[in-house]
Design goal:
Length: 227
């Protein structure tokens, strides 16, 4: 599969993107605090992804209603979890918040009973998946922002055959690479500022954050958020 006729937007070295994002996030953390620093970082990641996507031939096949990748295991950073919970508290009804907690708790229990290898092929629907669309798209994790393909056939096959490791990669390499560089820079900045930067499985972290208000307070004091 040919992913791009012009890979120049992705040509910036991994280290260059990482260092630039590290510096920008550090400055924002100092001037504005973690919520605004995270939001600004997400905007930069989306802008970079949009630039790369504009060069792709064929174009991205991702669209509302395509949710194959929304069944795979996702790791998140603590600040992402607390941003998501803030969004949920503001936008979701109490009944919907309870349903979200119940789903996340069930998913977390299922995954915790599996080995790390088995978790990669568990195919559990994201707790935020509603009518085959992301219900928190504006605050979705950085990992989700890198999951883009120009042909959904590979995504569908990966969903239908999760243990088949011979399926050709369907994601756009430039988007994955730059997204990972961006993520690494942001993580470095948060760690340098004294925040917990430990990656967490989305369902498990979400269940804790929804049930325990102390998790966010621990995070903001520079302690481990999830204990």
């Amino acid at each position: 599969m040919t992913h791009s006729r012009d890979a120049r937007p992705a040509a910036a070295p991994f280290a260059e993107i990482t260092q630039r994002e590290d510096a920008l996030v550090r400055a924002d953390l100092k001037a504005h605090g973690w919520p605004r620093a995270l939001a600004a970082s997400q905007q930069r990641q989306d802008a970079m992804a949009g630039l790369i996507a504009s060069t792709l031939t064929p174009p991205l096949a991702c669209k509302a209603g395509c949710a194959w990748c929304c069944h795979f295991k996702v790791e998140v950073r603590p600040e992402e979890v607390f941003q998501i919970v803030g969004h949920v508290r503001a936008k979701f009804s109490p009944a919907r918040q309870q349903a979200l907690y119940d789903t996340a708790s069930r998913n977390a229990a299922t995954l915790q009973a599996l080995t790390p290898t088995q978790q990669l092929s568990a195919n559990l629907p994201c707790p935020f998946l509603q009518d085959s669309q992301c219900s928190i798209h504006a605050v979705r994790p950085a990992r989700c922002r890198t999951l883009h393909a120009t042909d959904v056939a590979g995504c569908q096959q990966a969903y239908e055959e999760p243990q088949n490791l011979a399926i050709p990669p369907s994601l756009v390499p430039a988007l994955v690479l730059t997204g990972e560089a961006h993520l690494q820079g942001a993580r470095q900045a948060f760690a340098e500022a004294g925040y917990d930067d430990g990656a967490q499985e989305l369902n498990a972290a979400l269940a804790v954050a929804l049930a325990d208000g102390r998790a966010k307070r621990r995070f903001e004091k520079g302690k481990k958020a999830f204990v």
